[in-house]
Specification:
Low-confidence stretches: 2-13
Number of helices: 7
Radius of gyration: 19 Å
Mean pLDDT: 87
Structural class: mainly alpha
Oligomer: single chain
Number of strands: 0
Largest sheet: none
Distance between the termini: 73 Å
Order of helices and strands: HHHHHHH
Length: 225
Amino acid sequence: MNNLTIALNDVRTSDSAVNSVLRNTYFLLSLCLLCCAGSTYLSVAVGATSPGFLLMIAGVYGLLFLVHATANSATGILSCLLFSGFMGYTLSPIIGLTLKFPAGAFILFTSITTTGLVFLSLSAYVLQTRQDFSFMNGMIFAGFASTFGLMLLNILMGGIPGMFLIVSAMIALLSSASIMLHTSMIINGGERNYILATVSLFVSLYNLFISILHILLMFSGSNRN
């Protein structure tokens, strides 16, 4: 009887921890998305120039290192917001370019809406089924490595539109799988740090949005202008 009571208490404690991580993760993720959107809006409004490849790489990986270094303290929240703000700045060139096209506002709205619907649908599925998708970890890593290789090959070949479309589709699929993976890690005990969980989901959403936007731009013919 005592063993049963202890087991039930462990289950309640585990469920409470999962709910706490989920609640904190989604709240911080909402703040990060608002910070990203605000940074993008301000950057487009003032006509900010592209950060450039080297600055973007240094900013992304430097801030990611900062997030991981401060993930176990309250400073990690600020690091998350700084990272999301910088990522919003990196979005400003393509957002500004999209808005210059006749159907740019519609394309942008469709990209945002589609990204949101995909995220909500995948998250709801994982939360409902509580399946463990940790088996996809290796496949996602291999998929992103292969996609990066295709991106480099496409650059060396002068930028073939068809290959660019394939790369964007692969990133969208891999980002969707990453959302399922990281959500399942939270509810199955693989991730107990909500700051790290937030950054993982934010990066997946960022990549998903960018890939969907690129695909819509290509199908709309806007990339030919």
